[in-house]
Amino acid sequence: MHLITWCSRKQRSVSRSTAEAEFRSIADAASDVLWLQAILQDMHISLDTVPVIWSDNTSAVAMAANSVMHAKTKHVDLDLFFVREKVTSQHMQVRYVPAASQVAYALTKPISVALFQEFHHQLCVRKLSKVEEAREILELRNS
After folding, report:
1. Of 31, 38, 114, 124, which has the highest C-beta tally within 10 A?
2. Whole-angstrom distance, CA of residue 143 vs CA of residue 136
3. d(CA 115, CA 15)
4. Is 19 exposed, middle or buried (CB count within 10 Å of its CB: 0-12, 13-18, 19+)?
5. Phi and psi dihedrals of 41, rounded to 5?
6. Looking at residue 88, what is its pLDDT?
7. Does the model's pTM come out above 0.70?
8. C-alpha distances out from residue 135 to 118, 139, 140, 143, Å
9. Chain segment 6-43, per-residue pLDDT in tens
10. Where exactly are the structural domains of the chain?
11. Residues 95, 52: contact at Cβ < 8 Å?
């Protein structure tokens, strides 16, 4: 099972570095992961694997794994401890994904046509005409 959440919203605070901003996003995603796990647990659905949060910022990924405090982390202490605790207890993982493989960029960044088509395919986006054709076929089968 692959659960994916993607959203865009303003952050609650001003970040002083890119790593801090990215790490706050990881903390928000970790919170969403825990919420989804609780819902699935209430429905008696267990996960086969540990959830993974993917980030294209190597500094933020390193902050999640490294228990050493850095100057970059002094403004995200609560988020830092929250995410690290979940990573060290193996409730989730934070991994690096290169920006060129970040599928969500098809929705947010100017990218090449070839890369857009690849991401388009990976997101399973279909033309509206194809969706309407499939719906018509289903309606004919059901009548």
Report:
1. 31
2. 11
3. 30
4. buried
5. -65, -40
6. 85
7. no
8. 25, 6, 9, 12
9. 666 666 666 667 777 787 888 888 888 888 888 989 99
10. 1-97, 99-143
11. yes
